[in-house]
């Protein structure tokens, strides 16, 4: 008898290894490798599988092609529908992930309440009981059409897939995929094999019954989706729910969308009645702003949406030999690079000072155009000089101190004009009378800071 083969699979990232290791070399997690049997079919079994298959009959693709606009379920949030490309597509599978406590279940319950007014909805919870979900639904206003809103608590992927396959429901929400188990798999819930196989069973059922399915996914401590990467490949849409779980704005953006763009962003704030869309985030973010040294208004882009946000900087003498660098809402590695450029290309000395940078409102800025605003905020705080009122700032900064052009400059300028700003400190490549052009850091700091 041939010796059975085994492999060791990481439960965090799904990587496989021929022998056991204490640490996964791919995701660098400890103690996540577990032994699994490897099924070797052999040449005879492969030949039999080919001969037992049936020939597929292809249809005329042009006759099957229809517009998907009329086959979508509206979520009740206009900005979320834009992120999705028009709403939840019937037969489409969506995966939403976010930090614990960010508001995923709240958002999905609000969506279920709205969709149930016109379609049958099933909410499947593997984490909470019916009483807990009912209490939240009552707090959020309850469903306006309770005969179409159905709830079940289950951890069986087999039962959930069989229920979806009946085609009785137009929308099914599964919260969450990490709590499900498939009867044919012996491993514990949340492992790579359980998540991938349970997800595959539910996706097949949703596609065959033309049911829109929303899966909730957990995230790791570094913010990436937990479980196998194959799950993201199987679904049609992947949504990331980001923000501060204790306050501030929360954003929903699509990182994958087979039926729409991935450049839109939905912005929400938590209220006592659930999540509410923020129609004009720039005005809300700047409502309490005081023009002092270290405060700069950045015209940024989140997806394709222009937002004005305040960048605050604080510079203090360091009491220790190693200066402290802290950033909230901005990449700390990028901050260290910009501080090195600022110190090298200007006369400011920051090697003996602690630097703190904060993005007001709990937003996370990943825009390269934030470079100039962050540098001017730090320089303003260090020199105790402030920028003139009515100025916004944006521009990418190179290692030579040059200010480079950025994308969607016209949208940034239009948003600044709408909120009453007079000028924008921006790269000289933008041909607009609203722009105060600068070519490098020194020019920006000398011309546009005042006592």
Computed structural class: alpha/beta
CATH class of the largest domain: Alpha Beta
**CATH evolutionary superfamily of the largest domain:** P-loop containing nucleotide triphosphate hydrolases
Mean pLDDT: 85
Strand order of the largest sheet: 8-7-9-10-6-11-12-13-14
Report on the biggest sheet. 9 strands, mixed
Q: How many helical elements? A: 13
Share of residues in strands = 25-35%
Shape: globular
CATH architecture of the largest domain: 3-Layer(aba) Sandwich
Uncertain runs with pLDDT below 50, 5 residues or more? none
| Strand segment count | 25
Q: Please, could you describe this protein's structure?
A:
The structure is a single chain. By secondary structure, the chain is an alpha/beta fold. It has three domains: 5-52; 70-279, Rossmann fold, CATH 3.40.50; 283-450, Ribosomal Protein S5, domain 2, CATH 3.30.230.10. It has 13 helices and 25 strands. The chain has a nine-stranded mixed beta sheet. A hairpin with a 2-residue loop joins β15 and β16 (305-317). α6 packs parallel to α7 (192-209) and α10 (332-345) crosses α11. The protein starts with a strand and ends with a strand. 41% of the residues are buried.
Give a short synopsis of this structure.
The chain folds into three domains: 5-52; 70-279, Rossmann fold, CATH 3.40.50.300; 283-450, Ribosomal Protein S5, domain 2, CATH 3.30.230.10. The chain contains 13 helices and 25 strands. The chain has helices spanning 42-52, 61-64, 78-84, 104-115, 130-139, 157-165, 192-209, 230-234, 281-286, 332-345, 370-383, 409-418, 441-448, and strands at 5-10, 16-17, 33-38, 72-73, 88-89, 93-98, 121-125, 149-153, 171-175, 212-217, 237-243, 250-257, 265-271, 274-277, 295-302, 305-317, 325-328, 353-359, 386-387, 391-393, 396-397, 403-404, 423-427, 435-438, 449-450.
